[in-house]
Write a structure and sequence with these properties.
Elements lengths: L3 E2 L3 E6 L2 E4 L5 H10 L9 E3 L4 E3 L2 H17 L7 E3 L2 E2 L4 E3 L1 H16 L5 H34 L4 E2 L4 H19 L5 H7 L1 H17 L6 E2 L1 H12 L5 H14 L21
Parallel strand pairs: 2-5
Antiparallel strand pairs: 1-7, 2-3, 4-5, 6-8, 9-10
Amino acid sequence: MIVMMIFHVFEFERKGKVIESPALGTGDIERLKKVFPDNPIWKCRTGGVGNIYIPTEAEAKALYDALVQYYCANDLNDAQYPTGNATGSFLVVSNLLSVFDDLIAFFEKELGFKKPEEAERVISAKQKVCSERKAAELQEFRTKVLDGFGALPDLKKPTDEILLAWLKGKLAQYEERVAQTYQHPKLAMTVDPRYRDATFKIEILSAVLALKDDKGLNLKDLVTKALEKYGDDFDPSEYFTACGIIAHYLGTPFPGTKITKEPLHAEAVA
């Protein structure tokens, strides 16, 4: 599968160096143009395939001021929408709140723009409320995920040498699947479900094969680390599926699950 994605950036030259804004998807640009249809920045010089905007400082300031004014006057939210210009079996998402936050922070850090004092107070207050809400939602999410995985039985390393050899072969297959991507690993984790699936299975199976002295692999502990490692790219349903497949291959499927593939079938591709 060939995947193409076009990102959009605002580009500036400062002290002989090219500075680029945070990358935006096509969906982000479409929404910004809808909110600010007459902003001067849309008439600026462009490069690339029309995805690189090269505004003057005055044009950039016009967008910055519009962003700040809109932020103060409206309740932005982090509802997700599809963005990017891509072909492939994945979906990249964004949200308008993050776009506003990222662009305002970029203009202030790189171009030295500053908000009026009252606007600074209003936006800071809104950002604090949003941050506290996100922290509470994240904690609730983590608690549910860890409780769910904590209820699953530990995975045990088998003693059968034939099965162990077969499992090492499966691990090599997963590693080959990951190696075949031409994308940066971070992007692949975000946009490619097959890459995530193989990555999760490598992590789980490697941990099982590394077990010693009849110890079990505690999935709550494993998922605690995965939550920190993968952040927003961690999908508990995908991780559960990966754990379930490995448990099946170990000969100890999770209670209530059913997988039709035979664990020692050489052509298994799960």
